[in-house]
Known about the structure:
The complex is a heterodimer. The mean pLDDT of chain A is about 95. In chain A, helix 6 packs across helix 14 and helix 7 runs parallel beside helix 16. Chain A contains 29 helices and 20 strands. The longest helix of chain A is centred in the middle third of the chain and has 21 residues, at about 410-430. In chain A, about 45% of the residues lie in helices and about 10% in strands. By secondary structure, chain B is mainly alpha-helical. Chain B has helices at about 10, 30-35, 45-60, 60-75, 80-90, 95-110, 110-125.
Amino acid sequence: xxxxxxxxxxxxxxxxxxxxxxxxxxxxxxxxxxxxxxxxxxxxxxxxxxxxxxxxxxxxxxxxxxxxxxxxxxxxxxxxxxxxxxxxxxxxxxxxxxxxxxxxxxxxxxxxxxxxxxxxxxxxxxxxxxxxxxxxxxxxxxxxxxxxxxxxxxxxxxxxxxxxxxxxxxxxxxxxxxxxxxxxxxxxxxxxxxxxxxxxxxxxxxxxxxxxxxxxxxxxxxxxxxxxxxxxxxxxxxxxxxxxxxxxxxxxxxxxxxxxxxxxxxxxxxxxxxxxxxxxxxxxxxxxxxxxxxxxxxxxxxxxxxxxxxxxxxxxxxxxxxxxxxxxxxxxxxxxxxxxxxxxxxxxxxxxxxxxxxxxxxxxxxxxxxxxxxxxxxxxxxxxxxxxxxxxxxxxxxxxxxxxxxxxxxxxxxxxxxxxxxxxxxxxxxxxxxxxxxxxxxxxxxxxxxxxxxxxxxxxxxxxxxxxxxxxxxxxxxxxxxxxxxxxxxxxxxxxxxxxxxxxxxxxxxxxxxxxxxxxxxxxxxxxxxxxxxxxxxxxxxxxxxxxxxxxxxxxxxxxxxxxxxxxxxxxxxxxxxxxxxxxxxxxxxxxxxxxxxxxxxxxxxxxxxxxxxxxxxxxxxxxxxxxxxxxxxxxxxxxxxxxxxxxxxxxxxxxxxxxxxxxxxxxxxxxxxxxxxxxxxxxxxxxxxxxxxxxxxxxxxxxxxxxxxxxxxxxxxxxxxxxxxxxxxxxxxxxxxxxxxxxxxxxx
Amino acid sequence: xxxxxxxxxxxxxxxxxxxxxxxxxxxxxxxxxxxxxxxxxxxxxxxxxxxxxxxxxxxxxxxxxxxxxxxxxxxxxxxxxxxxxxxxxxxxxxxxxxxxxxxxxxxxxxxxxxxxxxxxxxxxxxxxxxxx
Lengths: 749, 132
């Protein structure tokens, strides 16, 4: 037997596809490289003596590590623990999914369960069951979405403009960070200003080291915090320079200033830091989430955060990611469902990661959609970025889910971007932080990203930040500066964010402000999904907003294109077409609307050009041509067959206005043909001419080589079908029950 | 404020007070621009935090309620103090004695829940060898 010594061409091709850049690994429980059910995961267990947890998931009290201890002391609701732990795991798993079991009942039991018990139940669920459960178990009825707003040079005016764009598009939380830590105050300030332009009430945060983040929040320069990281093993917690107690204290510090805050976790982190204790990713994450609940955090960002590439590298990784999101919801906490780290070089794979959550709906579908270009994302590229915005909007339109975003035209975006950049400039100048030129504003307003803006003065963000910190700048100073420079609306909105802190409504689970400043939270907008027809539904108004995207082309747009070619040929009616007798003629037949209402073929040629090339090809062969119009049919085959029966040679060419063409012969069945150009967008002028030539050769009894269209894998249907529908409708409108007529063509020079 | 309901923003603006005692509806742009607002006017009050804790507990989240009650105790502490206390609780920052002292400081100033949290941390840190 002969053995090939080289890979197949197919293998070589596939190995070069983007997917082959992704790193996938075999399961290895010892390293924690296992999504569900490591052999080292404990069996669920809970023992309570005199109201005190003395055994948790197989570990006795004396052996509790810090994570166990914190969960044992604060995270288990002893009143329901016995009932909860006695509920058979498969039964609880079914309760999680069943729309008939209220979410409150599931959350009540989950509050008395250990991490291993909850992980065991989640392990039983398929991806679709997890999604069905998410639809029911997410806390807030109305899904929302968060943006990353950053740029690689920490340009304050660009940050403000991008914040305003993000809010205009529908983002309700904006997160920034810094390439350079000491720029944080300047970024936080610019983001705050931009976030209140156009619409009120978007929340902002600046993700930096815990202490700095807290200080910015205390000054009112941010309005929530998210980067309060927790981990599932003791060692990694300590490596992260915190303990469950320091984190719980930090949570209370934020709340003491009226600031919304959520914890951050996410599988893969412990593996990356080399200390997973051999536990499965889901079990460790179940510990993180239990800890977040125990500490009194209102919410958790997890699933598809920095560790997602590790999770994605093992079998069932992406199912684990949505399972850990659901875990947050079981604990009745706000769920910010990641999607904020680019997890694949493959567009198909990264989309597959995100789409299921979009369909199910979560409190925050992304904890950082990159609202700026990927290169400007200081967190690293998000799973979706500004480049993908239109794709996202069209997918939202396709599936009719609440993706939180809406298309905005340039006029509106440019207006809010200019106002944001001007307001930011005014505040920076008024507070003596930095000065900008008109060109800086202009550049930032139009920019796609930081590569498009004039260079920033050296050390500007650093100096501005020093002045903010040294001068003790607070949100009240921002209010004053905005007002002094005539930005009264924005001043009032920033002040309202201060008032919101005094009211504390945003401290409740899943709280956001809508654009009318209504608080939507677990208490005011609880998810009441209980099956079809319940829960969040897209309103008719929202549906029409979702339907409007850049790519939608109206009938008017499409027909305006036709007008471009109007009058390019005149086809004069000369009465009924008669059957020819000359064997050296080819009849060219056109469709009902050809050169009457329709003027431009799908390849962009006018119908005049198309017709001229065909007849020129016939002439090249020394034959004669006649033009007729077939009224009775819009079908290309029928048109060609009718014409062939009028042709002295028995051969015809048929043309539809959209450019499809064929050669027919009278002795063939009506729907057969000699040659067919069905893919109109790909036909070139040369091919039309060759088609004319071949028709003439058939007429002479020759057997020419059939013509081939250029090869292509373009998605022609999606590009042209809306247009085709309009063109066919016009042909249909002009079709009538009348015999073919002879035409005289006049090509104006 | 017992009769107030969630969200407070809806009909509580005339009753809810900042830490200084000023009602929220008086936190106006005019007052801000005239420089009439002191830090206490833009600080949430312990009473409001306890009220929000009640709402959270009624909503079924005891731990969130507890967090907000700890927060109510911390309103009186300055930003710098809180940043320092948080720092002391991080790994390897404090001795057992220093954490005892922190708990005492908190308890002295009415932050009993926070003091309990610190005492609990101290005993776990010692048991797990984080501090000696």
